[in-house]
Specification:
heterodimer; A: 624 residues; alpha+beta; D-Maltodextrin-Binding Protein, domain 2; globular; B: mainly alpha; 14 helices
């Protein structure tokens, strides 16, 4: 019975996909021309939300309580904001256990951290902390907490909670251990010391630039969680799960769980005792309720927005033009937040090692091509990124040339414009390395091998499949024979990770707009995601085949982590992007734009590139 | 053989069957190329140690046959294990089973309550205008793919605004009185039930009609008429009772489909039922959850067959349980 329905579903999905890809073909059939550029302009006609300069947050003291004063307009109290999340919904409400984005978002809504990111400038600003002092050694951080702020059960939030969260949960390895991974400096965790009820000292073994932002990790109520932690990791992993009655939560954030109905919605109610006030010193948030529907897929989300069930929608692809068209006579306004942190790229397997059986992972003939900088740069110059953006992404994207995404604070501004497609230059580069063309225009290397290789991507992602076809066509202009093969995502990861038997792959990674250090897993020569020359554990003992520029990347990432001065850091990460740009082990293709539609009835909607739509959720209010 | 002995015998027969089903399901799941850790592996923030710990937590570091025995021993003790999200499988299933039962029982009830009278009605007015209209309607009902019909209704709901888009309850549900609550749920159920009933209704109506037409030709009906019984008695006492026998077997199958039959409709309507949960579990290779749902499916099918056999015996004394 089930099998039958599954196959029905498959047929349904396939026919939908077919419909979509047909549409893509139709668009692609239009010759690359003015039409596409026009389309591009039309979609970009609304400007990217620009970060207006806003005064910094102000601490103010009322009746012995240290509040933050918000920066927006004075609004009205009451009302509900409806939003949605795609997928299964939260798996836990315990932010220290959360392993997926939805669960983390909900956890972070309920539990604040010591610091947060200023959505306008990207600076680290105090949240539960009142002030942060970094001592000149760049290893010690003195955090002063706000006085008088409380957990939702009325107990004060003190340094004991902070020390407990860090020492007994994170450093002790409870919950999601990737938190612990991110704070390890040379394999050692930071020291966290209690000084008095409102002061904590953090000491990192070495200067570690990403650390300050990591302090944004949610703080836990010690009086509730200490008994749980004592019972062990298993008990902690199931604590504050999705079947916990909402009244059992003791929280510190803007909103608190009111009701969770599996596969339907999560309802949050405002925290009446939150420590942010508006300019009239009235306690925020303005909204009474914040409700998140759990929807199964993108189409359903769009339907729900059109039916008025939800107030905000991330608009994608071909929907953008339609929504923009309807915007004039509608009750919503659209915002363009610029490119997202996703970076799609094509990469070459530059691996020169042999597997356990003494066989090369990559055919030695192909190894020579992929390790030839002129070959890689020729591919880079042959790609028409503009065409990909206008035809595959429907103009809702931007060509990408750097390893850091456009939204990154550390984007190399000299490189971001990149270069246009230049077939002549590509051919010149190939000729420099002894490549030649036969009578039928096919490319041969200097040993007369025909240049032919496989290009993989994950099947089912229509966007990436279309990009693969375009890349294949672009490279055929150089006489390369590209066999484009979309394969299952799992199989693809297996190839990247384990069997290493691939030539070229198109895939995307998500970066961070605030902290480039996360890229170390990709760019350092021993990284677990060093895709273009993956070194397995056995290879790590004796790294003989490391390239000069890989060494420099190792050095830069190491240095970048230790440098706290933002201008010096910028130089370091500019240099890393320059190396990647020049060496082109990964050829970056595009990023998608983040476009949102939100109903006009809400006030204080001040989207920023770094903070997104809802960074000031406590200030958003219902106009009438 | 008395009925209780027969039931016992069938249950004993079911045990090896269920074990074979479980071995086959487990093997097929394990043969699928899905790697539950694929996404973690491609996440720059995840360290190899975390990956290793996750492997151990999910029991993926053991050989496949050991994984199976581990699952089997705990399942025999009534423990269905934990799902990949860390919750007990049984809690996750229990969250959804009542919703799915609500949807399927209401659509089955609706289907049978409408299909039986219409089928009888059509058979009695064979080849009349109304029979032909019903034939056309039921052909359409059978021909329209349920997911497509569901999509059409969904678009209708968006455009008209008369029906909610998915879900089972409204936002202010907790503030309603019991009467409003029933209305609210019915409002949400209307479209999915309509989709599920349409296909079933059309098929069942045709079957009732066909069976009754066959029976009306039988000798004992002619005999009953010849001996001068009133037409009412001929039809409802003799013909319909005989025509309904094959339907009882169908009821058994309907029972089997109670939990698994609505998956597709649930998915389109974003209904918080079992089907959506299991589809997501299959995609993520949440093995304990998938196994539990497959076993439930098998058990329901066996129970449904048993139920049909016993009902048949009760309805038709000629049938022997041997």
């Amino acid at each position: 019975m089930k099998g039958k329905y599954k196959s029905f579903l498959k047929i349904g999905l396939i026919s939908l996909l077919a419909a979509f890809s047909l549409k893509a073909c139709l668009v692609a059939d239009i010759p690359e021309s003015n039409i596409t550029t026009e389309k591009n302009n039309e979609n970009n006609s609304f400007e990217i939300a620009s970060a207006k300069s806003v005064r910094p947050f102000k601490n103010i003291e009322i009746n012995g309580v240290d509040y933050i004063q918000a920066r927006g307009k004075i609004g009205k109290f009451g009302g509900t904001l409806y939003t949605s999340t795609i997928g299964e919904g939260p798996k836990t409400f315990n932010p220290w256990n959360a392993k997926d984005a939805t669960s983390s978002t909900m956890g972070e809504l309920m539990f604040d951290g010591l610091v947060a990111t200023d959505p306008y400038t990207g600076e680290v600003v105090p949240q539960l902390a009142k002030s942060i002092k970094v001592l000149p050694s760049n290893k010690e951080y003195i955090i002063t907490l706000r006085k008088g702020i409380k957990w939702s059960d009325g107990k004060p939030i003190t340094a004991k909670d902070v020390v407990f969260t860090w020492n007994d949960i994170i450093i002790a390895g409870y919950g999601n251990t990737s938190m612990l991974d991110s704070i390890m400096v040379n394999g050692k965790p930071p020291k966290v010391e209690f000084i008095d009820d409102y002061t904590v000292r953090f000491i990192t073994p070495e200067p570690f630039a990403p650390f300050l932002r990591i302090l944004g990790q949610s703080i836990a109520p010690k009086h509730i969680l200490e008994p749980v932690v004592k019972k062990g990791k298993k008990e902690f992993a199931s604590f504050w799960g999705v079947s916990t009655p909402p009244k059992n939560f003791v929280t510190s954030g803007k909103f608190k769980l009111k009701w969770y109905i599996p596969a339907q919605r999560v309802e949050f109610v405002k925290n009446p005792d939150y420590y942010v006030v508006d300019k009239k010193d009235q306690k925020l948030p303005y909204l009474d309720n914040y409700i998140m529907y759990i929807v199964g897929d993108l189409n359903n989300q769009v339907l729900k927005f059109e039916a008025g069930d939800i107030d905000i929608l991330g608009v994608r692809g071909s929907n953008v033009a339609r929504f923009k068209e309807l915007e004039k006579n509608s009750d919503y306004k659209m915002y363009n937040l610029g490119p997202n942190t996703g970076t799609a790229f094509a990469t070459f397997n530059m691996n020169r090692k042999k597997d356990e059986n003494g066989k090369y992972y990559v055919n030695p003939v192909k190894q020579k091509w992929f390790n030839d900088i002129n070959f890689r740069k020729a591919v880079d110059y042959a790609i028409d990124r503009e065409n990909m953006v206008s035809n595959v992404l429907h103009g809702v994207g931007a060509p990408l040339f750097t390893a850091e995404s456009y939204s990154s604070m550390y984007l190399n501004h000299k490189l971001k414009k990149g270069h246009p497609k230049n077939i002549d230059k590509a051919k010149e580069l190939l000729a420099k390395s002894g490549f030649k063309w036969n009578k039928s225009g096919k490319l041969l290397d200097k040993d007369n091998n025909k240049v032919e290789f496989n290009l993989y991507t994950n099947a089912g992602n229509t966007e990436r499949e279309a990009v693969g076809v375009m890349l294949k066509q672009d490279l055929e202009e150089l006489g390369m024979q590209v066999n484009f093969k979309p394969i299952e995502f799992n199989v693809l990861v297996g190839k990247l990770n384990n069997s290493l038997d691939w030539d070229t792959i198109i895939i995307a990674l998500t970066g961070s707009s605030l902290e480039p250090h996360g890229g170390k897993n990709v760019w350092t020569s021993t990284g677990a995601l060093h895709l273009f020359d993956q070194r397995k554990e056995k290879d790590l003992k004796n790294i003989a085949d490391i390239r000069e520029w890989e060494k420099e990347l190792d050095y830069l990432f190491n240095l970048g982590a230790k440098t706290l001065d933002i201008d010096k850091r910028r130089e370091i990460y500019d240099r890393y992007q320059e190396i990647v740009y020049n060496q082109a082990p990964m050829v970056y293709l595009y990023s998608s734009l983040r476009i949102f539609a939100i109903r006009k009835k809400f006030g204080n909607i001040n989207p920023t590139k770094l903070g997104g739509m809802m960074h000031n959720l406590e200030e958003i209010y219902l106009k009438e | 053989m008395s009925i209780p002995v027969y039931i016992l015998k069938r249950i004993l027969q079911a045990i090896p069957l269920l074990i074979i089903v479980s071995i086959m399901s487990f093997a097929i799941i394990k043969l699928s190329p899905v790697d539950p850790l694929a996404e973690l592996k491609l996440n720059p923030a995840i360290s190899p140690q975390t990956l290793e710990a996750e492997k151990e937590r999910l029991g993926l570091n053991l050989p496949v046959y050991m994984q199976y025995f581990k699952w089997l021993t705990s399942a025999l003790q009534g423990d269905l294990g934990i799902s990949t999200s860390g919750e007990k499988v049984i809690t996750r299933l229990m969250e959804r089973i009542p919703n799915t039962l609500l949807l399927t029982t209401s659509s089955i009830l609706l289907t049978w309550l409408i299909a039986l009278p219409i089928g009888i009605f059509a058979a009695l007015r064979w080849r009349s205008a109304i029979d032909r209209i019903l034939t056309v309607l039921s052909s359409i009902g059978m021909a329209i793919p349920s997911f497509f019909f569901a999509l059409l209704l969904l678009i209708f709901a968006v455009k008209s605004g008369w029906f909610p888009i998915g879900g089972l309850t409204s936002v202010n549900f907790d503030k309603m009185n019991i009467f409003q609550k029933i209305l609210d749920v019915a409002h949400h159920l209307f479209l999915p039930v309509l989709v599920l009933s349409t296909a079933g209704l059309a098929g069942l109506q045709r079957q009732v009609r066909g069976n009754l037409l066959d029976v009306l030709e039988a000798d004992y009906v002619k005999m009953a008429r010849a001996k001068g019984l009133p037409e009412n008695k001929v039809i409802y006492k003799h013909a319909v009772r005989n025509a309904i026998n094959p339907m009882v077997t169908m009821l058994g199958f309907e029972f089997a489909a109670l939990l698994s039959g609505a998956a597709l409709t649930e998915f389109v309507f974003q209904y918080p039922g079992l089907g959506r949960l299991i589809l997501e579990a299959v995609m993520k290779l949440d093995i304990n959850l998938v196994m539990a749902s497959l076993m439930i499916g098998a058990i329901m099918l066996i129970l449904g067959n048993l139920l049909a056999d016993i009902l048949l015996k009760l309805v038709d004394p000629r049938i022997s349980l041997n």
